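Allow me, if you will, to draw on your knowledge of protein folds for a short while. I have a record of one protein: its chain in single-letter code and its fold written as discrete structure tokens. I remain grateful for any guidance, and I place the record below:
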Amino acid sequence: MKKGHNLSQSEVIGEIPRAGANELAAVEFLEKQRWGDTPACIRCGSVDVYKMADAKTGKRNERFLWRCRDCKGQYTVRIGTVYEESRIELRHWCYAFWRACTSKGVAALEIKRRCQINHKSALFLMARIRFAMPFFSSHVSVFNTLKLQGDWRDAVKKSLRTKKPASGCRKVTARWEV
């Protein structure tokens, strides 16, 4: 019997590619996943909140802010998640989550090429995704597949300089497996 995950058959996973089309679609998708139909304040838990809009155009705020009428706090869907304090657009996060959940492995270089971000950002993104989904590590090799290529290269360079084997690093041509 074939072992593996069935995430690719999930309805949510099927919606993620549409969410990666643009930033607004990604934000609305993540808001729906986080709050459903009743958004709530991150700080006080009140449901008396509203989307902040531009006064001139009436369109949604560029930063996709929400405001609570009770505590007067501003917040976004990013607060309290793995994409908090990240300047990477949410559409890139959606694509990376989708690739990580629907394939056996994904490289940071692939994310770099597809999302047109730099390699350091792709490594950061994939490390955060692995941190967010640790329960998959024993079942799926997706998150162990993403052993940071930079870390491995740095360890090998250091071992060549010191003539000692790189501790904790092993080279596997196809994937890093559990």
User: Anything to note?
Assistant: The radius of gyration is 20 Å. DSSP finds seven helices and three strands in the chain.
